[in-house]
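Posting this for the archive.
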Amino acid sequence: MSKHTWIAPSLACAIIASACGDATPEPEPPATVEQTCVQDGVTSGAFTLNFPDKRIWVFSETVLNDGTLFLSNTATEATPCSSEFILGPPAFIPFFDDEDPGATRIWPRGGYVRPDGVGVVYYDKIDFRGYFDFDVVGTGVAFVDADGTVDRPDALIWEGQGQGYGHGAFADSDGNGYVFGCRNVDTFIQRCRSARVPVGQEADPAAYAYFDGSAWSPSADAAATVFDGTLAPTVRPHDGAYVALHPDLFSNDILIRTSDRPEGPWSSGIVLFTGVRPDQFWVRDVVLHDDDLLTYFSAPTSGPRGLHNVRVEWK
């Protein structure tokens, strides 16, 4: 694979003045996509833990039967769109004895498998009264063995609903795990910050550092915005650099950005492809998996409603 570098159109025109004329051409996306299938029912989450001999799909929410029964915090080893795709029982991440599953929800947000073969899952703990009436207690981390056994430490990593960490998590070759925290600043508009932690120390809140715009700080309050005005990104290493994908605001376009470092600076987004239009709002929950499979959620007026699977072919 070749490394993809984008130059801002204005800079390209300054370098080669005669090449642009009056119109600035749109940059070409670095990949082509093929939308392959839709798994009915999955409504949010859908990231993967890739162990050496199997993959575990983890979901925040799924809808069953006629659309009135929701199931939270589930997982399966089956591939979406296959005849074997059956969700495991709820409570993939276990509840504590003092938690009422009716009033508490566990919503997995993202994760990765460490080099030592342990899966890391970031999740939100929710005080749940309804889908439009809930509070985020905080974000914790759980650990998954290859046999599916899950250990959930008692303490949360971040408390309160203003942090939003858990998205876009991945383990990098530099020995750190990276995770992004996105919080709402307006309706549908988020600002996202970056944290990192030495791989193997994910359960220790004091081990995390936060990018402050120029360096890594031990203070979460110092974290600078690295994605502004976007929905939560999915971030992955790619060909010696990094790619981030997310839905465009108020659009079904899925944008791609690049950076030489996990914390940025990130390039401007260009359209990779346009997702299937849902009957309300826009596509969401875009996730790029480790084997260049991309998934997103859409519920169109006609056609399957659920997890759309897209194969990415890098140029």
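Confidence is low (pLDDT under 50) at residues 1-20. The longest helix spans residues 9-15.
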